[in-house]
Write a structure and sequence with these properties.
With 268 residues, the chain is an alpha/beta fold. It is built from ten helices and seven strands. Strand 1 (8-12), helix 1 (17-28) and strand 2 form a beta-alpha-beta unit.
């Protein structure tokens, strides 16, 4: 098990949800935290809570989809020494039929959910290679295993992040760098608050998120264990295992997708 005491960790999307919970757990492990979020009010609140408990912590307010801002944050961190652990957690959600998904939304999802982690990875990778150490954690989504109508754009991009991350694991382990790809199931966080749904079934599913989703504290604990064990892949929930293995049983995916289409997508 990896000892995290004194390790320097950057967590994106640390102002709420999984990111905040993970920051609190890492603080208890004795890590020095760099926290990033686009919401200044949220990240300042987390910073003050952790600093008040005597934790070594700094925060940055920036947009992970802006390459210049990402590299500016990276340069500030690297001026104080190498980063030990990078947690690419920040992301945005979106639900709609593919035929009704505008190109601008595709670009926004790609910029935040895919290019954001890629920018951060490249901002720190050379330094990790030179030091022959480091750990990159990319938070994808269990949606990558479920071909659910209504979530096509979001799932496609999160699946792309998963592929990038899992391939990166094999390519950089020769340099002593670990890469963990995390696939959370539904998590009860503010992530879903702006997803209204276009059908009654979709809106109902969003209303019921608190009742069938996982708590962010639980997911953060699972991610912490995965970091300590340097796991290659963490699927978080047994339901993601079901989704993963269902792709080898074609009729199962067809049943799930057809049912989802009836409940979650608009009728023309």
């Amino acid at each position: 098990m990896k000892n995290l005491s004194g390790k320097k960790v950057l967590i994106t999307g640390a102002g709420s949800g999984i990111g905040r919970c993970l920051a609190e757990l890492l603080a208890k492990e004795g890590a020095f935290l760099y926290l990033g979020d686009i919401n200044e009010e949220n990240i300042v609140r987390v910073f003050n809570d952790l600093k008040g408990s005597g934790v070594g912590v700094k925060y940055f307010v920036y947009d992970v989809s802006n390459q210049n801002e990402v590299y500016s944050v990276a340069n500030s961190i690297l001026s104080e020494g190498n980063l030990d652990i990078l947690v690419n957690n920040a992301g945005i959600g979106y639900s709609n039929d593919l035929v009704d998904t505008p190109l601008d939304m595709w670009k926004r999802l790609i910029n935040v959910n895919l290019l954001g982690p890629i920018y951060h990875t490249y901002a720190f990778l050379d330094h990790m290679i030179k030091s022959k150490s480091g750990h990159i954690v990319n938070v994808s989504s269990g949606q990558a295993f479920f071909k659910l109508p209504g979530w096509g754009a979001y799932a496609s991009i999160k699946a792309a992040l998963g592929v990038f991350s899992e391939v990166l694991h094999y390519e950089v382990k020769r340099y002593g760098i670990s890469v963990t790809t995390v696939y959370p199931f539904m998590v009860n966080t503010p992530f879903y608050k702006d997803i209204k749904g276009e059908t009654f079934g979709a809106r109902l599913s969003m209303k019921l998120v608190p009742y069938y989703s996982m708590k962010p504290e639980t997911v953060a604990k699972i991610i912490l264990k995965a970091i300590k064990k340097e796991k290659k892949v963490e699927k978080v929930s047994v339901l993601n295992d079901v989704g993963f293995y269902s792709q080898f049983v074609p009729f199962m995916q067809d049943i799930v997708a057809t049912t989802s289409s009836l409940l979650l997508t608009k009728k023309k």
